[in-house]
Specification:
By secondary structure, the chain is of the alpha/beta class. 39% of the residues lie in helices and 19% in strands. The chain is built from 25 helices and 20 strands.
Length: 685
């Protein structure tokens, strides 16, 4: 008897070679095969005479072979044509480059065929996409609702359908139900064996949809269980540290040259309450570009230092880490708090910094993933802040938390997250949102220019510089590429220097040495440079209030979130700012991105648009975000099911906190098998 978790190669008709092909689809076991769901279903149940279909219709017809012919109109193309009798009429079936068809189906064979109708001289001709022999494999590939699977080039639909059917017949009944009966009853969902049959070979459209809904809810329910388990386990832990002294944070608040917005005050109160709690903070701080998240992070790090603890802030790029270090040093060092920068390329004084972090003399350390490298030890790490957190994987955040003993965790993002995605990604975190920009900011005027209109962009830059302002020009590549027809930063830098005589132009890209980048950025911050030509290294972490113009070259090559982040480099003062999107978009998606940027500055609206255009996997990048590759659930479409799954998961864990009772043994096994990272990193956000 086959086991559901046995290697797929032992299924009849597979073997080692086919197993390798199936593994490319993520199918390693029989269970994986049964959970490889169709991407769509085609209704081929309506069988009508071929003569009743119009030109271009997709039809399912049947007939008996009466003759065959083969032609080779050109090299590399063989056309096989069968004449079939259907009652009193005749039609033709056509195959391309499948010469074996002529011998396989001699006169007298009865076939069921699906394909597109092409009427030639009044006689219907069907270009066959699927067929089967009546009386042999009848009802599998035609004449019913037929599954269409996502496959690789080496596998075809007919083989895969037959493999699924054989496997279902052999072991489908062994699929043991693991969802609670109450859940199945409440949402009228089929049990697992029935759902597997109906998702692959449905008897009707209704039964297919019912099975599909079961697997969507199942997948989301298991994921939400993981999030809820994480949250419960985190809240059960007790911190070994506490925050008693508010003197430093009061001094910092009083020294600020501006007043916090009401949204910032509300968020800080939420974080301060978490820090006072005996349980570790696990909070997500969302805020659009320029909303003022850094000062909130500075207040939290200051509070940690005031309590005799250490704080660490991890950023995804050296440029962003350097910006944070500069800003936070200016805020905290006048209060006597020692702040240090630690990055991979920062070798000067590294030993001294590591020693001071280890003995506690450095109270706040800011850096890249270098913060979690071997040899970096903290004396008393009480607070971990992770900025632009979606760029770090679960393991990286876990490694930083492991440097301390139950530290408080604040993760921040300037990428607004739509509600359904936030519910799924961050169900284990408490969420704070800075939904208010500092006063006095003007709307950034955003316009699209074709490459032929690029002169207008140069004119705007010149005008802003003459008025004493500064500007950015961003393009996607560093050097010209034969493969990608796009404007390179190096080439554009040379052109703009010639076009803007008398203006000081700088160049910034990732291939420059750290010292060169730092010098260039300092010159731009201090106003020595009028224009900065750059790649996307300035996407986050650059804050120059005097910069009022952002020109994005070949804008169609950037993602929507990236365009929004780049636009956020300007508009950081009360001066009117501009963003010009230069390029010639050709695809529908690229045109939609450009139009959305010109329509709105609301990051949450743009995030929803981005999610619709690209889907959740591309929205963050599945590998980095920790977002699982859902097999059937869709985070854009299934918002209702996400909320249902979250509600049911929380209710189940409220009654059965650890899922350790015998009745939930199968459920926990499925959860652990499906989302192993939740089990391994169960204390990590």
């Amino acid at each position: 008897m086959l086991d559901l978790y046995q290697s797929i190669q032992y299924v009849k008709g597979v073997g080692p070679q086919r197993a390798i092909q199936l593994e490319r689809l993520g199918i390693y076991t029989i269970w994986d095969l049964l959970y490889h769901f169709p991407r769509e279903h085609q209704d081929r149940s309506s069988i009508r005479p071929a003569h009743s279909f119009a030109q271009g219709d997709v039809a399912t017809v049947k007939g008996m072979v009466i003759a065959a012919q083969e032609s080779k109109p050109r090299r590399g193309l063989t056309i096989t044509k069968l004449a079939l009798q259907e009652g009193a009429g005749t039609f033709y079936a056509v195959w391309f480059n499948q010469p074996y068809i002529k011998k396989q189906y001699p006169p007298g064979k009865k076939l069921l065929l699906t394909g597109k109708i092409d009427r030639k001289y009044g006689i219907p001709q069907i270009q066959v996409t699927d067929h089967e022999v009546l009386g042999e494999d009848e009802g599998l590939h035609s004449g019913r609702i037929v599954p269409i699977y996502p496959l690789t080039e080496q596998l075809n639909q007919r083989f895969f359908r037959s493999l699924i059917k054989t496997t279902l017949d052999q072991v489908g009944s062994l699929a043991e139900e693991f969802l609670p009966d109450s859940l199945l009853d409440k949402y009228n969902l089929p049990c697992l064996p029935e759902a597997l049959r109906e998702i692959h070979f449905p008897e009707s459209q209704e039964s297919c949809q019912r099975a599909r809904r079961r697997f969507i809810l199942e997948e989301l329910f298991l994921f939400e269980l993981g999030l809820s388990l994480q949250k419960g386990r985190i809240h059960k832990k007790t911190k070994t540290h506490s925050y008693q002294d508010d003197v430093l944070t009061e001094r910092l608040s009083n020294s600020l040259p501006f007043t916090l917005t009401e949204a910032q005050k509300r968020v800080w109160q939420e974080i301060a309450a978490d820090l006072k709690s005996p349980y570790p903070m696990n909070r997500l701080l969302q805020g659009d570009v320029g909303a003022g998240k850094t000062i909130i992070a500075a207040l939290a790090l200051c509070k940690a230092a005031g309590a005799g603890l250490q704080g660490a802030l991890m950023a995804p790029t050296e440029l962003l880490a350097e910006q944070h270090a500069r800003s936070i040093q200016e805020l905290l060092e006048p209060l006597g708090v020692k702040v240090a920068l630690l990055t991979g390329s920062n070798r000067r004084g590294r030993k001294e910094i590591l020693a001071s972090v280890a003995n506690g003399k450095i109270q706040v350390v800011i850096g890249t993933h270098a913060l979690i490298s071997e040899g970096v030890n903290y004396q008393n790490l009480g607070l971990v802040v992770v900025d632009e957190q979606h760029r770090f994987g679960v393991r990286q955040r876990a490694a930083l938390q492991d440097k301390g003993s139950v530290p408080d965790v604040l993760v921040m993002t300037a990428t607004p997250i739509p509600r359904t995605l936030a519910l799924t990604l961050y169900g284990d975190l408490d969420v704070s949102v800075i939904d208010q920009l500092p006063p006095g900011r003007q709307k950034i005027k955003t316009h699209h220019l074709s490459l032929a209109q690029a002169g207008k962009a140069v004119g705007l830059i010149k005008q802003q510089i003459l008025e004493g302002r500064q500007a950015y020009v961003v393009c996607p590549l560093v050097e010209e590429s034969e493969k990608i027809d796009t404007q390179a930063a190096v080439d554009l830098y040379e052109r703009l220097k010639k076009a803007l005589v008398g203006c000081s132009v700088g160049l910034l890209h990732g291939r420059l040495k750290a010292a060169e980048k730092e010098t260039t950025m300092n010159d731009f911050r201090q106003g020595t440079l009028d224009l900065l030509v750059s790649t996307t290294v300035i996407e986050v972490g650059v804050d120059v209030a005097n910069a009022t113009a952002m020109v994005i070259w070949d804008a169609q090559r950037f993602g929507l979130a990236q365009l929004h982040q780049l636009r956020g480099r300007v508009g950081r003062s009360s001066q009117q700012s501009y963003c010009l999107l230069v390029g010639d978009p050709t695809t529908h998606e690229a045109k939609e991105r450009i139009a959305a940027m010109c329509r709105t500055q609301d990051g949450f609206v743009l995030a929803e648009e981005d999610l619709k255009l690209r889907g959740p996997g591309e929205f963050f990048g599945t590998r980095q975000s920790g977002l699982p590759e859902f097999k059937i659930a869709n985070l854009v479409r299934d918002g209702k099911e996400i909320e249902q799954a979250k509600k049911e998961a929380e209710a189940l864990l409220s009654a059965n906190p650890n899922l350790k009772s015998p009745m939930h043994k199968q459920l926990f096994a499925q959860f652990a098998r499906r989302f192993p990272d939740f089990v391994k990193y169960s204390d990590v956000s």
